[in-house]
Design a protein that fits this description.
This protein is of the alpha/beta class and 258 residues long. It has nine helices and ten strands.
């Protein structure tokens, strides 16, 4: 069942590399404005699912719909238009090391708009200001910290004001304070831009802070165990695998659900 707020729908998805099935029977919905987290243990296929959602891999079985339209049945032009509505933040940040932060953020604007160079510069500086990097536009990625590189990569991901943002382990490699600041930025961007966010994460602090919905992929059974709000999943589940993940093995009584 769907409603008019559902913007991404996954139905009976099977992901595989040749004959090796990674996950099967995956179904969930992402509503407009969600921060939807893909959870699970190492090697369960979280990043693989993200690649399927952005069209880098093709389902072995099942369907992925955007606003009711089958992604695989879209024309090349329709897919191109959809991809322009997406922003992606990779785990490594994937900034161009030979370009300044301003030049990195400007790239999507140069390639996908007909704006003047002056307007592109203004927008690049504005996006950097949104992630608290004003004054660093002339710096190269190697000249700033890991947390700052993640924020710069986020600025590039939102350069085109995307409707959909996809993050692969955004807090990976960050200290707890930097990770917390990144969580706050993600929430602020969702609120200010109305963006729908889909992110891979195993960071419980981040999951409980930002997630409005989620899906849990299980390594052993190669399928999803549950979908829903993480706090409610922990409260309601009787599944020991899901309980262990959502409490880091400490049990329900050791996790604050407020």
């Amino acid at each position: 069942m769907t409603d008019d707020q559902t913007v991404i729908r996954v139905e009976d998805l099977t992901m595989a590399y040749d004959e090796e099935v990674i996950q099967r029977d995956i179904s969930f919905q992402v509503r407009k404005g969600d921060i939807f987290v893909i959870m699970g243990g190492s090697g369960c296929g979280k990043s693989t699912l993200l690649r399927h959602l952005i069209g880098l891999q093709t389902p072995a079985h099942g369907k992925i719909y955007y606003e009711g339209q089958d992604f695989e049945e879209m024309s090349s032009a329709e897919k191109s238009q959809l991809l322009k509505r997406m922003g992606i933040l990779y785990q490594s940040g994937a900034l161009w090391s030979s370009l300044t932060l301003e030049e990195n953020i400007s790239l999507p604007l140069v390639y996908h708009t007909s704006l003047s160079s002056e307007m592109i510069r203004e927008l690049a500086l504005f996006k950097l200001s949104l992630v608290s990097l004003s004054g660093y536009e002339g710096f190269y990625p190697s000249e700033i910290s890991g947390g700052m590189r993640k924020r710069a990569a986020l600025a590039r991901a939102i350069a085109l004001d995307p409707e959909f943002l996809f993050f692969d382990e955004p807090s990976a490699g960050l200290d707890p304070i930097s990770a917390s600041h990144l969580d706050e930025l993600i929430l602020e961007i969702r609120e200010s831009m109305g963006t729908t966010v889909v992110m891979v994460s195993h960071d419980l602090a981040s999951i409980y802070t930002v997630a409005s919905n989620s899906v849990f992929l299980d390594t052993a059974s190669k399928t999803m165990l549950a979908t829903g709000k993480p706090r409610e999943l922990l409260r309601d589940t009787d599944n020991p695998v899901l309980t262990a993940f959502l409490s880091r093995g400490k049990g329900k009584g050791e996790v604050c659900l407020l």
